[in-house]
Amino acid sequence: MTLLEILVKEIPRLGGWPEGVSVIEQLDDGCLYDPYGDCLFSGREFNLSEDYEDAFVTNDKYEAALSASKATEWNGEGLPPVGCECEVAWSGAKFIPCKILYIGVSVVLVRLDRSEECYTLSTVKFRPIRSAANRKRLEVAEALIRFLDLETDIDNVFHAGDVKDFLDYIAAGKIPGIRIE
Predict the structure, then answer these.
(1) Containing domain of residue 121, as a range?
(2) 118 and 137 assigned to the same domain
(3) What whole-number distance in Å separates Cα of residue 8 and Cα of residue 106?
(4) Which of 19, 30, 68, 71 counts the highest number of beta carbons within 10 A?
(5) Are 179 and 169 in contact (CB under 8 A)?
(6) Calpha distance 39→26 (Å, rounded)
């Protein structure tokens, strides 16, 4: 673990970042030091970080990492919680990445790439951010659905879930000679 990861994991339960300390470093004895003072958290042993020789963590860097570690996961049901990074589409436009800053009874405030925007909840849709792999998988699934619906004589309507299961089956190597990259 890096020094930053150790700090985010360990010091919240010890009362958080020490008051008056701007930077924390670690020496080879595992102790955490303020470079301008003595050993911090006396009597407490910490694992030696993999980057102890040249790592130092500022309070700002620690607070940002701590906040990110507490970022709320959202599964796409209901409204995303404050702090969630997701995608938003306004009035049928394409989805774009955003961070939820505030959600009220009828409005939402989001941070976009270069601005902050306020929307009426009834005019926006949210969805979790999809990874590149998930986006590619969905593209393949949609293409297979189009093919199967147009090119087969099967009286069955195919759904994305069916095709995703099929892709998982291929990815698991259960169909010899076919590989998904």
Answers:
(1) 76-128
(2) no
(3) 35
(4) 30
(5) no
(6) 9
